[in-house]
Amino acid sequence: MVAKATKIAIDAGFRHIDSAYFYQNEEEVGLAIRSKVADGTVRREDIFYTSKLPCTCHRPELVQPCLEQSLRKLQLDYVDLYLIHCPVSMKPGNDLIPTDENGKLLFDTVDLCDTWEAMEKCKDSGLAKSIGVFNFNRRQLEMILNKPGLRYKPVCNQVECHPYLNQSKLLDYCKSKDIVLVAYGALGSQRCKNWIEENAPYLLEDPTLCAMAERHKQTPALISLRYLLQRGIVIVTKSFNEKRIKENLKVFEFHLPAEDMAVIDRLNRNYRYATARIISAHPNYPFLDEY
After folding, report:
1. Where are the domains of the chain?
2. Which residues act catalytically here (predicted)?
3. Region 142-164: what's the mean pLDDT?
């Protein structure tokens, strides 16, 4: 399914493919990318591939070996972007979510500045063209930016972002530091039972977005994506549906006027779908800070 969806996306015109070691699908994604290179649809350099360092590999000596393992799965020579997948460190080992016999998460204590130095070495080696972070709050970003001897700052910070969580303060901060904000959960409607509460509000049924979509002859999803795009945010969309994959690219075919942007701004309720409460006991849990 993942390989098929990736091929459909590339054929439709997508060039940024976002995955992670944690997702356990890099063999399929790599196969799809290589097949589209082989049939002449794209060149490798046309594809911008993002992978992520899992929480169990924050110890500096594990960072590059983990990236090398991803590259072996992908059968690619490099990734275009490598992210620290989360500021919360977990016990190293084969389990992606390590727990004890009682089901309690096994955390690790790692200085993320040391992790970042190992990420810098991945860039030096050419295994990663760029490096960044995922789900870091302002305080955690500043910790990296203020690190003595910093050689490469994070090029981006990927966070949940949509009209109900518009991340305006974090966006302003990232822009001030020339860090790109990348949005996941851009449609705010994932229904993964392990991560999302069942009674979560359904963003795409919001009356304001629906009315605006009707007026612009677009879908609520496209209105939400366009809102983020016009704020200078890079968007990661997820779909296995061919019709929706192709539809998402229509975000470039229209423009929202300033008054509509202001209306959507007011929909913000600082509502986070992916709270990751499972890791909230760790001192680096990122969502206790305002932003």
Report:
1. 2-279
2. 23
3. 97
**Structure-token match 């930016």, residue found:** 145
pLDDT at 7: 97
One of 23, 78, 152, 291 is an active-site residue; which one? Answer: 23
Indicate if 23 belongs to the active site. yes
Q: Residue ranges for the binding site for substrate?
A: 85
CA atoms of 150 and 148, how far apart (whole Å):
6
What is the crossing angle of helices 138-145 and 168-176, to 10°? 10
How many other CB atoms are found less than 10 A from the CB of residue 86?
Answer: 23
Please report, for residues 3, 138, 183, 196, 268, the alpha-carbon distance to residue 169 in angstroms, rounded to integers and kept in the order given.
37, 9, 14, 24, 12
pLDDT in tens, 114-149: 999 999 999 999 999 999 999 999 999 999 999 999
Residue range 146-162: average pLDDT? 97
pTM value is 0.94
Q: Which residues are annotated as a binding site?
A: 85
Radius of gyration of the chain (CA): 19
pLDDT per position as a tens digit, 242-277: 999 999 999 999 999 999 999 999 999 999 999 999
Task: Please give the full DSSP string across 109-157, using - where no structure is assigned.
Answer: ---HHHHHHHHHHHHHHTSEEEEEEES--HHHHHHHHT-TT--S--SEE
CA angle 44, 47, 49 (to 5 degrees): 110
Residue 267: strand, helix, or coil: coil
Q: What is the DSSP letter of 36?
A: H
Element housing 74 (H / E): helix 60-74
CATH of domain 2-279: 3.20.20.100
Name the β-bridge partners of 79.
128
